[in-house]
């Protein structure tokens, strides 16, 4: 019985933590984005979306390289494309 109670407490703590993170992510005024190793967007908050002018759905279909200016930082584009993650 104790194991079930501990598990329920842990599940509730996880739900609370996730809700806290979600509220922070959705309301923060700083732009936040998470990309994976191949530079694919995984999530972007509203501030980041507003900064770039894309919806989150549009960003999730792109990579960081797609949004890097072609003449702005060629070393970065090459570096990201040539990595073997």
Structure characterization notes:
By secondary structure, the protein is mostly helical. Helices cover 54% and strands 8% of the residues. It is built from 4 helices and 2 strands. It has helices at residues 2-27, 46-52, 56-59, 74-82; strands spanning 33-35, 41-44. It has a two-stranded antiparallel sheet. The longest helix has 26 residues, at 2-27. It starts with a helix and ends with a helix. The model has no long low-confidence stretch (mean pLDDT 85).
Record keyword descriptors for this entry:
two-stranded antiparallel ribbon, 2 strands, 85 residues, 8% strand, single chain
Task: Briefly note the structural class of the backbone.
Answer: mainly alpha
- Strand portion, in percent? 5-15%
Question: What is the mean predicted local confidence, pLDDT?
Answer: 85
H/E element order: HEEHHH
Helicity, in percent?
40-55%
Biggest sheet record:
2 strands, antiparallel
Number of helices: 4
Assembly status: single chain
Strand tally is 2
Low-confidence stretches: none
Radius of gyration: 18 Å
Strand order of the largest sheet: 1-2
Q: Name the overall outline.
A: elongated
| N- to C-terminal distance | 45 Å
């Amino acid at each position: 019985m104790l194991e079930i109670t501990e598990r329920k407490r842990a599940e509730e703590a996880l739900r609370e933590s996730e809700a806290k993170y979600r509220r922070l992510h959705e309301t923060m005024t700083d732009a936040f984005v998470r990309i994976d190793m191949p530079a694919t967007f995984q999530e972007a908050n509203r501030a980041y979306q507003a900064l770039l002018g894309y919806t989150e759905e549009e960003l999730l279909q792109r990579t960081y390289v797609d949004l890097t200016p072609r003449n702005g930082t060629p070393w970065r584009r090459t570096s990201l494309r040539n990595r073997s993650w």
